[in-house]
Amino acid sequence: NILTERLRRLEASGLVKRVTLPSSSRSVYQPTQIAHDLRPALLALAQWGNTHLEETWTPPADYLAPST
Q: Which helix (H) or strand (E) covers residue 28, if one does?
């Protein structure tokens, strides 16, 4: 499964952590602080692409807003 493999690689890289929900045996993935620290760089790349590349997906305005 492609998604499973990608999530495992993100977990191994420290970008997400797997958390088991207390009310069930299901697991979810949550971003780590490392992932949050990467956000400004990713947003800068997204903004550059929207400025310089035609037909680039433009995210909603709140997506590019700094997180609090």
A: strand 27-31
